[in-house]
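Response to reviewer comment R2.3. The reviewers asked that we include at least one raw input/output pair. We reproduce the pair for Annexin here without editing.
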Amino acid sequence: MSDYHYYSNPNYGAPPPPPNGYGYGPPGGYVPPNGQPPPIPASSYPGPPLQNYGPPPPSHAGYSPSYMPPPQGHQYAPPPPPAFSSYPVAGYQPPPAAYPNQPQQSQAPIIYYMNVPVPSPAYHLPPQGDIAPGYEPTMDVDKIRKATKGFGTDEAALISVFGHLGSLPMAALAAAFKARVGKDLEDVLKSETGGYFGETLRALVLGPLWYDVDLVHSAIKGAGTDELLLTEIIADRTPSDRQNLFIAYRMRYGRDLQADIRGDLSAKTERMYTMMLSANPPPDHAPLDYKQIESDVKALYKAGQGKIGTDEIAFCDIIINRSRTYLAALCDAYARKYKSLTKVIKSEFSGHMRQTLLFIVEGAKPKHAVEGPGIWRDAKMLEKSMKGLGTKDKQLVRRIVRYHWDRNRFEAITAAYHKKYKKSLESRVAGETSGDYKKLLVELVRGA
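Raw output as returned:
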């Protein structure tokens, strides 16, 4: 197997991810080089300034240590603070104008999105150069050209290329293909492949960030809104992830994502999504305040169980604007005093609001903390894509593709799936799909 396969060298020499998943940098912010992106309205930035990377995260791909139940006496001990500095090593650097004799930057810098290294969307620069050390795209470009030239398409050759590339090699391949062939790789695959096989290939070529941009746009375009898809992309995200999504969306469509989402929704559903888009919760490693947890337990009770009717906005305010670690402690405290918070949400809410609040809470609740935040929830989401009469292929494609980029986390998801359903995710996917589409999805799952 080639040394550029992502599960043998997941980050390809890329810089380590941010220490707390939020990408905060030193005071004063990062000053971009020449070739900076067009200005974006301040309303598009609910979180801190876009920063480069810092030291590597703890286990489970950038998540903070899992919440542990409090010791006797209800003393909620916060997770230990990181042993490393929160700031990038290099510190502040003056803008390029201060160095007139220095060459200008020739490629987009690497950032982290969903704990995966990707070229920054904030620059009109191709991801060329040695962004994926150890990977040389020339042979893969030749394979793709051979597989897509002439009559018919060699699907097996395409699977051998796209079934194993990590996020940075995929970006390097797309850039090299365009430079050598003069066509977008995405367009070539769209014309040469079809069905869910072609859709999966296209999702892989787009990479983690640009695929999310494509998905969020599809969720709100046309008549009606796909609220479930919107929730999967927007909810339970760090401020820096949302910020990068806003930037990339504007780069692709020339529009403000927050405004587009608000214009597609109404009433309290619109307010809930506006809260998620604007949320700036503390990082997961922030110390827990037990008095605040106790206060939130009372507030949630008064907003739900403790009254006739439900104060949806008060409920959303607490659930949306707290860190995952805090929510885990809150779920535990509420269950000790009343009952499971998920049961309360199921009885007090309905429709899209219920669906979204459950998505957030089930990603944080401490019942399965050992697997990591969101692991158990995402394993169940995969099963929901295949359960019942017929496979929900669009859901299955997007979930496998989105989950598979973060290999460590995907391994935890596949392990949780096997633990819960007593069968491997690979065999389940193989039984629900067929043809080249099946072979490609199985190859992606096998990588875990």
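Residues 35 and 262 are 31 Å apart (CA to CA). The longest strand covers residues 110-113. Further pairs are available on request from the corresponding author.
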